[in-house]
């Protein structure tokens, strides 16, 4: 099975920046101690302008994201420009083992944001707020 970075190599030289998420870091450290490992793994996050997530417009995007999730190396995928609307059900963009949080653009087409998170990661997260004013969309998690 190819690693996440191997799947992303078409983007050129991979960039490895560690973003701090205290609640996720603490959870990973606890899991690592239970496994007897010395160092917790990095938290891998993918941020992408997906330019339309709806499977009927491009049937390859959800399977591509699913492949990235299958590597087991990605905790969170944050997507912009999802172009989703209330007529598109979560089941149509579901990835097994992954929770989706989304905010569709109101009153206009295009726009929208979504966050895919591993179910074991999403259990500890909560959505504090979602917002759309027809121009920008926001999902707020602690």
The helix-strand sequence is HHEHEEEHEE
Largest sheet composition: 4 strands, mixed
Oligomeric form = single chain
Shape field: globular
Estimated radius of gyration: 16 Å
Let me know the number of strands: 6
Secondary-structure arrangement, i.e. CATH architecture: 4-Layer Sandwich
CATH topology: Deoxyribonuclease I, Chain A
Low-confidence stretches: 7-20
Helix content: 10-25%
Distance between the termini: 33 Å
CATH C-level class is: Alpha Beta
Total of domains: 1
What can you tell me about this protein's structure?
This protein has 142 residues and is α+β, with helices and mostly antiparallel strands. It has a single domain, classed as 4-Layer Sandwich (Deoxyribonuclease I, Chain A), CATH 3.60.10.10. The chain is 22% helix and 21% strand. It has a four-stranded mixed sheet. A two-stranded antiparallel sheet has the order 5-6. It is globular, with a radius of gyration of 16 Å. 17% of the residues are buried.
